[in-house]
Write a structure and sequence with these properties.
heterodimer; A: 310 residues; D-Maltodextrin-Binding Protein, domain 2; 10-stranded mixed beta sheet; elongated; B: 308 residues; mainly alpha; MetI-like fold; 2 domains
Chain lengths: 310, 308
Amino acid sequence: MKKQLLIASAALAFVLAACGTPDNGSGFEQEKINVYTRDTSSGTRDGFMKGIGFGEASSDDSVLVSGFITNNNAAIMTAMTTDIAGIGYVSLSSVNNTIKPLKFEGVDATEANVLNNTYGLKRPFVWMRRVDGDFASDVERDLTLAFIGFMESNDGADVINDAGATAVNGTGNWADLVSNYPVCALDNSSVTLNFGGSDSITKIAEALSAAFSPRCGNVVTVNNHTGSSDGYKRSQGDEKDGINAMHIGYSSRPFTDAEKVGPENTRGQLAWDAIVAIVHKSNPVDNVTGDQLTRIYKGELATWGDVIND
Amino acid sequence: MGSKSLSRVDRITYFLLTIVGLISASFIVFISIFIALKGVLPFLTDNLGLGSVSLFKFLTQTVWLNGPTFVSTAYGAGFLIVNTLYIAFLSLLISFPIGVLTALFIAKIAPKKIAGILRTIIELLSAIPSIVYGLVGVGFFLPIIYSLARSFGYSSSGGSGTLATVFVLALMSIPTITSISEVSIRSVDQSIEHASLALGATFTQTRFKITLLAAKSGIFSGAILAIGRSLGEATAVSLVAGNARSGPTFGLFDITSTITSTMLTGLKETQGIDYDIRFSLGIVLMVVILLTNMILNYIKKKVGNVHA
């Protein structure tokens, strides 16, 4: 019995001793970087990887450093509160004071810097509507214009911000603006507006549609998001009169020159989607470049010392 | 009351019960057929021009997807099978002794009042949904495991990994093992315990060498159910496993992934081949669970009939 007690207390002492002496001798620079990412179906991942110049990683896990952790937004945030050697990324709207947001190319990740276009790790959310002569009826054209008016109003900006992006417009309260759109005073419940394009924008676009309908004669809205290239194709491009034709198409990248065929006033930007690289609060690193992030996610920068001395 | 009317009631009851039985039994057929039909598609079709998935590579490879999502079909689930079995085994290693000894305490040692309270607690525990166990894992186990790993000089990924998964699964399966073991321990014939005591064995000797041995079959059933729960748990596991995309993982502090956590990751966002392949994983999971159950039942039959 005595012998067992002795063994048990020795084991306990060992465990306690092990807990009591954290091995900090090697220092932070020796810490292996723990890389966190969203899974390949995530729009944030797509924006992040393309934003740092590592586009092939947006849908391909096999080009990432081995041993990376795949998790959702909330889990990455939680992990950064415990893992002092971790790095992850989230939308700007998720950033709070439990983690440390990194500057990107020397610029703080703030809403102001996103709007004045100095913060670089972001992608634009843009829209394109049918050109004036292309609507089936005047009512549909007026409703489309009213929707754009709503999207750019303060109310629209609230909807966009609530859905996690940073709205770029805010032209006034919809209650004051609605008089510019007499069509909204009619009963529009027999008219359908079709939206589509980028699937990264789905959440915002659906929220905008849902908020717009009751404010404009209960117009019926249909959101069918298939990808950014369809934003142009199905509003002004070669599918504009096809079965999937739509009134407004969204894109989560700037329109290309080949897509900018219609008049200037038939397209615009509704929001920025800013993404922030985040680390543990105790991490001494303040700033990263797109190139550094690429090399971190590739595994070429393997320890935090590699980043600090880069 | 004539016997005729009674037998009619009997017949109606018999008929109704048969129908109900057939309906619930047919669910397993529906599910199997549905999963199987969807799950074999990636191997048989060319997946809209991407080429079919190789079954052999799928079952043996150590990287989940080699290439871009929606374009590549080089899926591999071999390491997931190993991870899943490894984690289920480790969690049983923890939950089995704790669960059985708790059952022994409730059934034989604890005063009636305490036993009653404990029994209610165990029942409550088994009713807690898995997502709650997952959240406990994230909020409680992960930071502890992270600092534990750090005390060994090891930088774990926020605590996510094999050990966290094993702990959460063990926590989840203890109530299952306890409640089933407790019933079978209580139903052990008291006369053989009395015989043991009369032969001069101590209470402790009797409880461990007679009671537990006699209840072996029931205890084993509890273990089989617990293993089933560990193999099939998705939500809690995906919260704490770290969802590795390659493996297999044997290190306790290294991130891992199981068949179910891989099925769940990105499930709500993905489409096409990347969606369909999750049904194939479903088939793999069902086969793994079926085989494990068959093997365990075989062992149970071999070793579980001492006192009968």
